[in-house]
Amino acid sequence: MKNILLLVSFLSLSAHASIVGVVDSGFYMEHELLKDQVWTNTAETKNRIDDDKNGYVDDIHGWNFAENSKFLFDATQVAGIKPISYKIISIASKLMAGTATDEEKAFVKENLIDLPKKEQAVLMEEINFYGQHAHGTHVAGIVAKENPNAELMNLRFFPSSVSPYNYVPMSGFWGKVEDTLFGVLADLTGSVFNQAVSYVGSAGADVVNMSLGIPMERFAGFVLGIKGNKEPTEDELAVESQKIYQKFEANAKEWANVAPNTLFVVAAGNSAINNDKIPAFPANVDIPNIISVAATIGVSKFPEIFSNYGKATVDIAAPGVDIKSSAPGPTIDFEIEMTGTSMAAPMVAGVASAVKDANPSLNAVEIKRVLMETVDKKSWLTDRVVSGGVLNNRRAVEAATLSNSRSLDIAIAESLITVSDQVETRDIPAGRQTLDDQTISVLKNLVF
């Protein structure tokens, strides 16, 4: 809370209001915690005419690229969610952090873990449905909390009927032509991504958060499976993943040219794998204005159960476990705890936008540098992220502020002296979380 108040105090003096694009499942713009930070396209009016001639009719607050429409979020889709689903999502996050009480553990065990498989599947379906539709609102809320000055651009990337988090492979004849079909899928995916990137570039977005990704290891496992290799080794998955990834990455390298002034903040992934070996898309896209984010438990622990990592390909870590933020629910100011690299990325995006507000002259690459060089260095992150540390919001903003009057090198060096490392605010148990295999299996489906 102290960090946030200090950030608010600084931002109240700032004339610049950065624009943060939230590429996600759409967010609930009427939410009490978001309504005052929604970006508005002042060149467009609600009149069924493309006033600004950008190709998007009535894109007042953003665009739905999944369905090519102006409709960004429908809160009625989650109106029937049962209270038990909210409670289980919240407790599951505490279990991930190791902070759940004995009473909370017993509740989840009785009402989810030990349920008959059919009943468990029905409840998990509702929970994951809610998680999908609440995801964008939760992500937007994290950005807003990190930077109350930011303007949030609503960019929907997934249709209502399709989950962005669980890929179900197609079946049938196509085993013999997987290369062609993955190429088509890559082209289709790349096309939608490219539309969104072009849009945010022309709209002047300073930062774009992408708490999403395509898990190459699932594609690779499926391809190897239809070739007869049902239990591939990690090395075999890595080789196949790299082949598939190349099809997806080709177009993405153009993002640096399409939106050179935008910093893309991307979740590293939730498969507990090394992105150096098995790439994730778009987290592994190698351009100067992308920053890839792993998750931590607070600022003192790495969640080995789910967060992807990579000494050469994942840039920075940020808190992503048991994060409370805005969500559609029974009240207009509803908040809930969620867990995942999806929650870590908007922490970085929010601070990146605050860095831009502190010194509007900083470009995307310089903002990335500030974020990475002002981290709290952690020995347990040395081999997991490029920067070797976890995001320090106050230090990053301090370095940006100082850079208004001195070189960026000196500003960063001074911030390392004047702003201390963060102190853990919660009582997070040391060591690895001990949970039975069945609980871990279920919890992995509750990571967003």
Topology at a glance:
Layout: H1 2-11, E1 19-24, E2 62-64, H2 83-97, H3 102-113, H4 117-146, E3 151-156, H5 178-203, E4 207-210, E5 214-215, H6 216-226, H7 234-252, H8 255-258, E6 263-267, E7 280-281, E8 290-296, E9 316-319, E10 323-326, E11 335-338, H9 341-358, H10 364-373, E12 376-377, E13 389-390, H11 393-402, H12 408-418, H13 437-444
Tell me the CATH superfamily: Peptidase S8/S53 domain
Give me the number of helical elements.
13
Average predicted confidence as pLDDT = 88
Largest sheet: 7 strands, parallel
* Weakly predicted, low-confidence segments: 1-13, 162-182
Count of individual domains: 1
Q: What sequence of helices (H) and strands (E) makes up the elements?
A: HEEHHHEHEEHHHEEEEEEHHEEHHH
Shape: globular
Sheet with the most strands: spatial strand order: 2-3-1-4-6-8-9
Radius of gyration: 21 Å
By CATH reckoning, the class would read Alpha Beta
Describe the structure.
The protein is of the alpha/beta class. The protein has one domain: Peptidase S8/S53 domain (Rossmann fold, 3-Layer(aba) Sandwich), CATH 3.40.50. 41% of the residues lie in helices and 11% in strands. The chain has a 7-stranded parallel sheet with strand order 2-3-1-4-6-8-9. Strands 5-7 form a two-stranded antiparallel ribbon. Strand 10 and strand 11 form a beta hairpin. Helix 11 crosses helix 12 (408-418). It is globular, with a radius of gyration of 21 Å. It starts with a helix and ends with a helix.
